[in-house]
Amino acid sequence: MNALALLVALTALASAEPGSPPEATADSTPPAGSILLAPKVGVFKSTTPLDADLFLAAEVGYVTPLLERRLAVVLEVNYHRPKVSGTLTDPQLGGFDAEPPDGSYSVAVREVAFLLSAVFRFEQALGSLTPYVGGGPGLYLHRATSDMFGTVASESDGGFGLQALAGLEMPLGPGGAFFEAHYHFSPVDFVSTGDVNVGGFLASVGYRLRL
Known about the structure:
There is one protein chain. This protein has an 8-stranded antiparallel barrel. By secondary structure, the protein is mainly beta. The relative contact order is 0.19. A hairpin with a 6-residue loop joins strand 1 (about 35-45) and strand 2. It has one helix spanning about 1-15; strands spanning about 35-45, 55-65, 70-80, 85, 105-120, 130-150, 150-170, 175-185, 185-190, 195, 200-210.
């Protein structure tokens, strides 16, 4: 009986294709130490009356070995310059006997932000799509420029804030195309703006390359 079992085993081994690799389990999680690079473009809308504006950003990330290689540390730099303009129509601006001056005004707030985020990726949790969430602190550099009654003035300041993000990535080539949404809290206290949060909401798209 033992000799028959040995013969069957040898026959099965001989019938196998030579050089066939063992079956492997697919794992789309990027290996620890991978570098992530991504340009972004989108629309930013402040929580203040400032108009919506074009948003530009670039990120570099590092995939850590933590949480089964699903946690990445990401550094991002972004730029936008929303503004608001209008006309003041109060006749008292010119006094009782004088002609009212030109009441047009504009205020623009330029922001350059450096963001550090911890990002957790749910690799292919929605079929081939990978949702992810993250957040962290940011250094926000602001410059407000106002033009009121023909007088132009500028103010500059910098400070720390917070941001949170969520995104969805679709595999494409050596990386993935993605859609992302952010919320930023970045307070300023300028003469032209008052003490307000000039952060807000943004939506962006981009392509994330894995190296």
